[in-house]
Amino acid sequence: xxLIQETPDLSAYLAADEVVDHHHPLVRExxxxxxxxxxxxxxxxxxxxxxxxxxxxxxxxxxxxxVTWRASDVLEQGTGICHAKAHALAALLRAEDIPxxxxxxxxxxxxxxxxxxxxxxxxxxxxxxxxxxxxxxxPGVDARFSLGGERLAFKVNVESSEVDYPVLYxxxxxxxLRALKGAPDRPYLWETLPDAL
Length: 197
Known about the structure:
Layout: E1 4-5, H1 25-35, H2 41-55, H3 59-62, H4 71-77, H5 82-95, E2 100-108, E3 115-125, E4 128-132, E5 163-164, E6 167-168, H6 174-182, H7 186-192
Parallel strand pairs: 1-6
Antiparallel strand pairs: 2-3, 2-5, 3-4
Helix pairs in contact: 1-4, 1-5, 2-5, 4-5
């Protein structure tokens, strides 16, 4: 699949905002801790990915009802769905000047009825974008950081009308943010996440 930058301006993929608040002290502290053992930007990106994937449980897997969406809140509360975890990883990567984009898939909903938009991200290394999925592993899901071929949590099934969206967004998609911000808890969020972009 050909990935398409939403904007040609690479600096947009390094920006901070209310969601990707990489200027926040907790984001900076976490980034500094992870960077201390990293020999280069690739090693840092790999360490940040592993940290978000493994140290922050996906709230559906852990049964946590809290909804997080701001990167610093994901790190502070230690929970989030795929979108929130992608926001946290983007903040950690952008804190170390690694261009990061948001990307999405349309997948069959966990409940088996309808579809849901799944969030992941892409990092830019060696002049190319590489999609990564930090949602967290579980039986049947084995996502890994990789620049040499995608190791995502889910492969789309086009026969089931699932979709890999090719656009690389500089900021999280507005429809996803509306759902996250408007949800009092994760069960409610599960019913209100967008089913397409």
